[in-house]
């Protein structure tokens, strides 16, 4: 079991660009949540996907969007990047009342 | 809105001593409280969790207590070891997989050999 995987590991983008981050959930998990973790802070909930639909959303602007595929994998898209979007983006998967398992994260740097 | 506060932000203890981290939450509907350990450059990993139907849970050197009335919960690490050094996050949610998890700001624990 590979656990939760994320790609890419690191990414450098320029202000105004768009980025897509990818996540494959742990085997048997059907729910994917995305978090943003700025340096020195706790993870902040962005949104959650279940059955290919956004089920819950945190306090993030519409520039942040996502998608879930039939195989439960997920993408996080961020448009019109700002310097403040620089962070570690974590994906977590779960199933019914199981704990959330986190992936290793994607480190996004916006210059 | 939903909020989780955590204290202290940094904690330094001698090896073998105990460490206590305290959290409070604002949403009275929260009933699941996980604790995560995050080592530098690594993903958060669940170390213990508690649901609102119990007041205390223990796993070897780690214990968590919950006071639902006061909306407080705490992590206790006994006989600390250098490998316990990490950032610890408390979190709260309504308890099912489709409920968002709200994290505290973290406590950086240093265990001095």
Pattern of helices and strands of chain B: EEEEEEEEEEE
Structural class of chain A: mainly beta
The N- and C-terminal alpha carbons of chain B lie at a distance of 41 Å
Percent range for β-strand residues of chain A: over 45%
Biggest pleated sheet of chain A: 7 strands, mixed
The oligomeric state is: heterodimer
Measured as a percent range, the helix fraction of chain B is under 10%
What features would you describe in this structure?
- The complex is a heterodimer of chains A (111) and B (113).
- Chain A has 111 residues and is mostly beta strands.
- Helices cover 0% and strands 51% of the residues of chain A.
- Chain A is built from no helices and 11 strands.
- In chain A, the strands form 2 sheets. In chain A, strands 2, 4, 5, 6, 9, 10 and 11 form a 7-stranded mixed β-sheet that branches. In chain A, strands 1-3-8-7 form a 4-stranded antiparallel β-sheet, with no helix packed on it.
- Chain B is mostly beta strands and 113 residues long.
- Chain B is 0% helix and 54% strand.
- Chain B contains no helices and 11 strands.
- In chain B, the strands form 2 sheets. In chain B, strands 2, 4, 5, 9, 10 and 11 form a 6-stranded mixed β-sheet that branches. Chain B has a 5-stranded antiparallel β-sheet with strand order 1-3-8-7-6, with no helix packed on it.
- In chain B, strand 4 and strand 5 (45-51) form a beta hairpin.
- The mean pLDDT of chain B is 93.
- The interface between A and B is medium-sized, with 29 and 25 residues.
């Amino acid at each position: 079991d590979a656990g939760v995987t994320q790609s890419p590991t690191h990414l450098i983008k320029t202000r105004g660009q768009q980025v897509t981050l990818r996540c494959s959930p742990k085997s048997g998990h059907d729910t994917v949540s995305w978090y943003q973790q700025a340096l020195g802070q706790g993870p902040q909930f962005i949104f959650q996907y279940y059955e290919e639909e956004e089920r819950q959303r945190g306090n993030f602007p519409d520039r942040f969007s996502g998608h879930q595929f039939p195989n439960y994998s997920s993408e996080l898209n961020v448009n019109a990047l700002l310097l403040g979007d620089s962070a570690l983006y974590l994906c977590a998967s779960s199933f019914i009342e199981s704990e959330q398992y986190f992936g290793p994260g994607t480190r996004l740097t916006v210059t | 809105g939903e909020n989780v506060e955590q204290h202290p932000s940094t904690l330094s203890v001698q090896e073998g001593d105990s460490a206590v981290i305290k959290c409070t939450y604002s949403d009275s509907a929260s009933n699941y409280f996980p604790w995560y350990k995050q080592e530098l450059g690594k993903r958060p990993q669940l170390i213990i969790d508690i649901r609102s139907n119990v007041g205390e849970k223990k796993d070897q050197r780690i214990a968590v207590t919950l006071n639902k009335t006061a909306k407080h919960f705490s992590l206790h690490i006994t006989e600390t070891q250098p490998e316990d050094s990490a950032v610890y996050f408390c979190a709260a949610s309504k308890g099912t997989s489709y409920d968002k998890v709200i994290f505290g700001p973290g406590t950086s624990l240093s265990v001095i050999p």
